[in-house]
Amino acid sequence: MENQAVAAPKKRIYSGIQPSGTPTLGNYIGAMRNWKLLEDEYDCIYSVVDLHAITVRQEPAKLRRQTQELTALLLAIGLAPQKNIIYLQSHVPAHAELAWLLNCYTYMGELSRMTQFKDKSQKHADNVNAGLLTYPVLMAADILLYQTDLVPVGADQKQHIEICRDIAQRFNGLYGDVFTIPEGFIPKTGGRVMSLQEPTRKMSKSDPDECFISMLDGPDDVRRKIKRAVTDSDAEIRFDPENKPGVSNLLAILAALNGKKPEEVGAELAGRGYGELKQTVTDAVIEALSPIQAEYGRIVKDKAYLEGVMKDGAERAGRIANRTLQKVMKKIGYVLPVR
Question: Global pTM?
């Protein structure tokens, strides 16, 4: 018999998203819409990282609701639970267990230099807790548990990938080849969406309502927010982020949703008024979000289906995570439980 070529194993992608409110249009364009495109080429794991959420005080009922809603939204953008693992971080105890172990291989100096720790300590000066400091170690545990090859990452998260790699390499240096060393992953398509009111800053759901479009904003809200979006006074439509950040942000949104380059859509709209630009962007945003919102509305009402997806996802994630955790514990020298 002729030897048949064996297909190379797929690379594994891990991504976590916090249930701290509905994702924005920026989250969708920059990351989430690309996830559907990855499921055939990669082995994808998506976690609603609810353990990370409590570094800031949460209202229990709101956290519970937002966690379920975010899970429904992940399914509504088209992620197939049969092809991807979709689960809640708190449903897999290995995350917290490995985070403690890795804390003991991470240095205080590394953690205190993290930009996010400095920023959040200033924003929440009355609640500078230990979890805020060790947040990057839990993030490292999230990634390393699944022997992750690639982590979708924005510029503001590069530090977290770097410290994750440092921790993994330090552990491997002591105990051998235990962890896969992950790489940051920048999808081929994407875009950086800026605040509608401060277009030199990234769109964020923690900003005032007028600054961002939520993925669940209805058509009236989308129209109102884009109508009020900051532009400038020279009335010329062209893509020039440095000199025309507001207009360029609207062109970038339109280009991302139409699969074109911002310069291209800028040229198409040259000579038109800002009112027409805003109307064109509004129509594109509503067209992109409406089918997702309709599917979300259906899924979020089906509690049994949602619970089934979460249960199945946690079981599949747990099998992978526990293999890594057992390996780590054995290397360190723990007496493993009899199973």
Answer: 0.90
